């Protein structure tokens, strides 16, 4: 795949471009043209026209095109993964996994496209028929993050395209190459050029245009709660439909009766996926007093097996953090916890490789007055809190404005139900640390967002329900 075939990707710097760097080596990979405001307005107008034609073709035809897109993604899996590792830093095996995950949304929604249907309701009156139909919402916009440069795009574009919407994606400036690669493949698959377009530029400039547009009827955003709230406000004037997948502060609870080895595997998978840079990462690990010391020892053993390095190298499973700000936040959380009495069991500092590499870090005796209890670390820090009772840990787990994902390990089936129902979160992993897939509804409550992505519910987010009342008199 020749990325430089895309008109917005350049080998050499010119004015008004974004530098794309490899966080593992600091090598400049490419320059991206910023989308000019007038060009963006034209893209929106063209999408408006193209959407109507796209919506008008049979859903079966849209599904076939999406399936071609899916197969093209699989065919290009290795190169897409390499592009991702180079611009984002995640290990190549994780990048390959993300491409499969990203492609799964395309396949899932291609299949869902053919199952859209309305209802016929019993009338209240003689000579009247009441019905609903579902229609695509129109032109949509998506603003996507750097931590999953492909999957967070396909999770939005697949339902949009399947339902007959057009979609304009502002990709993260740190990881735009994966986005443009998807756009190239989508065109090759037969998705009309104005129906899915990637744009870039200064976030505020682009989001002002997207959010202020009357043509764009829906915005889907994945990112921080702070930015989500700003976008929410910006969309108020044009009353757009919104999907927001925002920050998390996931509790990960291990009870005395848990299978310890499975709990360790769950923590490792949840905490260290993408070097801790996911919204659903275990952020606070609560361990019951009877199993506490043993778990700390076993977790440290497992963490010693993590290999930090350039994601393109064999055996590496922890890449660099995305940038210096990310690294500073991890350092801040560790320093704050140590100052307030936490104990360092493993790691704790910048990795000897330099740059933005950080040592996987284990802290125990962490308390709720520490920063790490309140904020998402978004890095490879595992903080262990001790608890005694179920009631106590439910209160601790829910003591946050966030509500994205929560996890717990227990073999007591009655407790499984109690916890599942008491945790104020959109998603709950029970005896597992990995919950994401295309079949399940992904999303949070409280400050973690609005709406659901993936699953059968994901399509509804891109459709309007229209009610028809027919008089036969
Ligand atoms: C995220 O971190 O925003 C998404 C993680 C996932 O899809 O599992």
Helix and strand topology:
Blueprint lengths: L8 E2 L6 E5 L6 E6 L3 H20 L2 H17 L1 H12 L3 H21 L6 E3 L6 E9 L2 E5 L7 H13 L2 E5 L5 H14 L6 E4 L3 H10 L3 E7 L2 H12 L4 E5 L4 E5 L5 H13 L9 E7 L3 H13 L19 H16 L3 E4 L14 E4 L6 H4 L6 E7 L2 H9 L6 E5 L3 H10 L4 E4 L18 E2 L4 H6 L2 E9 L2
Parallel strand pairs: 6-7, 6-9, 7-8, 9-10, 11-12, 11-16, 12-15, 14-15, 16-17
Antiparallel strand pairs: 1-3, 2-3, 4-5, 5-19, 10-18, 13-14
Helix pairs in contact: 1-7, 2-4, 2-5, 2-6, 3-4, 3-6, 4-5, 7-8, 9-10
This protein binds succinic acid.
The site of succinic acid has 9 residues, from loops.
Organism: Helicobacter turcicus
Family: Belongs to the aldehyde dehydrogenase family.
Protein name: NAD-dependent succinate-semialdehyde dehydrogenase
Large-scale geometry: globular
Q: How many H/I helical runs?
A: 15
Profile the largest sheet: 7 strands, mixed
Bound molecules: succinic acid
User: How far is the N terminus from the C terminus?
Assistant: 61 Å
Structural class: alpha/beta
Q: Can you give the helix content as a percent range?
A: 40-55%
User: Can you tell me the residue ranges where pLDDT is under 50 for at least 5 consecutive residues?
Assistant: none
From the alpha carbons, calculate the radius of gyration and give it in angstroms. Answer: 23 Å
